[in-house]
Design goal:
Blueprint (H helix, E strand, L loop, with lengths): L4 E6 L21 H4 L1 H5 L3 H11 L5 H4 L2 H6 L2 E5 L5 H9 L4 E5 L3 H11 L3 E4 L12 E6 L9 H14 E12 L9 E2 L4 E6 L2 E6 L3 H10 L4 E9 L2 E8 L1
Parallel strand pairs: 2-3, 2-5, 3-4, 5-6
Antiparallel strand pairs: 1-10, 6-11, 7-8, 8-9, 10-11
């Protein structure tokens, strides 16, 4: 059985953040949220599922590591719901939970609505324009999806998640190790990864743990736990903020 490493941090009194790599001069990092959309607009659902297999996430190992949070939650949001990998698992583990999925790509959102029908409320919207009918117990931001936003957008995104959570709610962010360039990607510096698919370019701004801690503690999260694991020799960390 895979050995998991756990770590806990308590929010410190924060000085000015020390950000190891922040290159705001590059225009590409200023608006990744919209510029990264094209690659998903042109991606088939079947190819998306193959990507999950190739990443070692199709069997939901990441979600199995947070079963306790899923099972006790009354309201759960999966950000970037895609083809429904997490939504399906949430419904399997907690049939009574009210499930929400934010997915801005229309064909994926339509697929989710057809697949899950009454099990999940699908919000076909950009995350910064989305509204929710209630506060949440658990928000998941998985498969390194936070890195598809610029640093400025990541700060805004974390603030948005914090406002959507109930007191005591948990935000789960998954991120691969910074500096470990995913297969088929290339890098121009330590934090920025790029992958070309035809005419579409997917850009990553992978946050350092210190950045995530600063941004999360700054908007009111008090503690952080981590779970370190691997899929297909890809080192990954789940950051649990509450």
């Amino acid at each position: 059985m895979m050995e998991l490493a756990h770590n806990t941090a308590v929010a410190p009194v924060l000085p000015q953040p020390i950000l190891p790599v922040v290159n705001y001069r590059k225009s590409v990092v200023n608006g990744l949220n919209k510029s990264n959309q094209a690659i998903y607009e042109h991606m088939s659902i079947q190819h998306f599922k193959k990507c999950a297999v190739g990443s070692g996430l199709a069997d939901c190992i990441d979600l199995r590591l947070i079963d306790d949070l899923i099972e006790k939650a009354d309201a759960i949001l999966d950000f970037g719901a895609g083809y429904g990998r997490a939504i399906e698992y949430f419904h399997f583990r907690n049939i009574n939970a009210r499930l929400y999925g934010i997915e801005r790509v229309k064909k994926f959102a339509d697929y989710l609505r057809k697949r899950f029908r009454s099990h999940c409320s699908v919000i076909n919207s950009d995350v910064f324009e989305a509204t929710l009918p209630e506060k949440l117990d658990l928000i998941t931001c998985l498969w390194s999806s936070i890195a598809e936003f610029s640093y400025q957008e990541q700060v805004r995104l974390i603030g948005q998640f914090r406002r959507w959570l109930k007191p005591g709610g948990v935000l789960v962010i998954e991120q691969t190790v910074v500096g470990k360039v995913p297969q088929h990607f290339y890098t121009t510096d330590e934090c920025h990864y790029y992958h070309r698919n035809g005419n579409d370019l997917l850009a990553y701004c992978a946050p350092y743990p210190e950045q995530l801690d600063h941004w999360c503690f700054d908007v009111g999260f008090k503690t952080r736990n981590t779970i370190v694991y691997e899929t297909n020799n890809i080192p990954r960390t789940l950051y649990l903020y509450s």
